[in-house]
Amino acid sequence: MSACSGGCSGGCGKSAAKPATDRRSLLRTAGAFAATLLGPGVTLYAFGGEAKARPQNEPASPTKRWGLLIDLNKCKIGCTACVTACNDYNGLKSSGLPEIDAQWIRKVTLRDPRTGVERSAPVMCQHCADPPCVDVCPTGASMKRADGIVLVDKHICIGCRYCMMACPYKARSFVHEEHDDQKVNAPRGKGTVEGCTLCVDRVDAGKNPACVDACAREGGAMIFGDLNDPESEISKALRAMPTVKLRADLAVKPAISYANL
Ligand code: SF4
Ligand code: SF4
Fold first, then answer.
1. DSSP class of residue 170?
2. Is 256 exposed, middle or buried (0-12, 13-18, 19+ CB in 10 A)?
3. Residue 86 CA, closest ligand 2 atom number
4. Per the domain annotation, does 6 fall within a domain?
5. Which of 3, 133, 160, 233 has the most C-beta neighbours closer than 10 Å?
6. Which tens digits make up the pLDDT trace of 225-235?
7. 219 half-sphere exposure, CB direction, 13 A CA radius
8. Residue 159's CB: how many other CB atoms inside 10 A?
């Protein structure tokens, strides 16, 4: 039996069928921010703590919708604590060839051309509610759990990379090489696609994602929690301040929100 590469133990399912999103058309409609995403560069803050461990053998609950709120006023330019934590926790190491290195989260520098003000933003898989990566996957390897976490099952991924082309956030990487020193929590397979799992094993254990905990030590730009719980810290924060989604016009309904963008 194939096991979910991201630690998913049930509750996965493909979203309702809809026309595949064409990446070129997505990029054609991209605004200034999307153009900036393709450039170098980002920071975040986060708290959480309200999550509880999911009992083993119990499927992911559709009553949950895990998400992040990133306050860019608290995300320092030059800080890469989230990136380092993600790489360390998931065993992502440099190959010496940056063009083939995995990048599950990256810092992007955003500059307002009118004022010259710069912002630094962490960008990872947006764990879309209507994920085009899932829609285009021919094998079902790209999947969305019942609680909204989007994963790749490496056991059935054939490495076609359709999902990489469909993702408007450039959030997925292809594994070009064998990796002998993998982390148990993040198995990696040459010839398959991977991306941010929202640290699904940590979430299932009732913890914050690794980037969120690292960010909290730097000032706390990231809040992780259950978007479906009106009493969660993230839901309260989302009600308290204006926030935006990256490329909201694409209607893929990301679980990641940004404040002060
Ligand atoms: Fe899929 Fe990309 Fe959305 Fe993540 S950000 S769920 S990889 S389309
Ligand atoms: Fe990486 Fe986990 Fe943060 Fe996703 S949630 S970017 S896998 S540290």
1. -
2. buried
3. 8
4. no
5. 133
6. 999 999 999 99
7. 14
8. 15
Q: Determine, yes or no, domain membership for 57.
A: no
Confidence (pLDDT) at 29: 34
Taking only the tens place, the pLDDT of each residue in 82-140 is: 999 999 999 999 889 988 999 999 999 999 899 999 999 999 999 999 999 999 999 99
Tell me the helix, strand and coil percentages in the chain, rounded to 5: 20, 20, 60
pLDDT lower than 70: segments of the chain: 1-51
Give ligand 2 pocket residues (Cβ under 6 A): 85-86, 89-90, 104-105, 124, 196-199, 209-211
Domain housing 133: 67-141+160-259
Burial of 15 (0-12, 13-18, 19+ CB in 10 A): middle
> What pLDDT is stored for residue 58 in this prediction?
82
Query: Cα-flanking dihedrals φ and ψ of residue 126, to 5°?
Result: -90, 5
CB contact at 8 A, 148 and 11? no
Q: Residue 125 belongs to a domain with what CATH number?
A: 3.30.70.20
Q: Which ligand number lies closest to the CA of residue 21?
A: 1
Query: How many angstroms separate the CA atoms of 216 and 100, rounded?
Result: 29
Looking at the structure of the chain, the number of domains it has is 1
- Which numbered ligand comes closest to the C-alpha of 169? 1
Residue 17 lies in a domain: no
Going by alpha carbons, the residue nearest to atom 8 of ligand 2 is: 86
Nearest residue (by CA) to ligand 1, atom 8, is 167
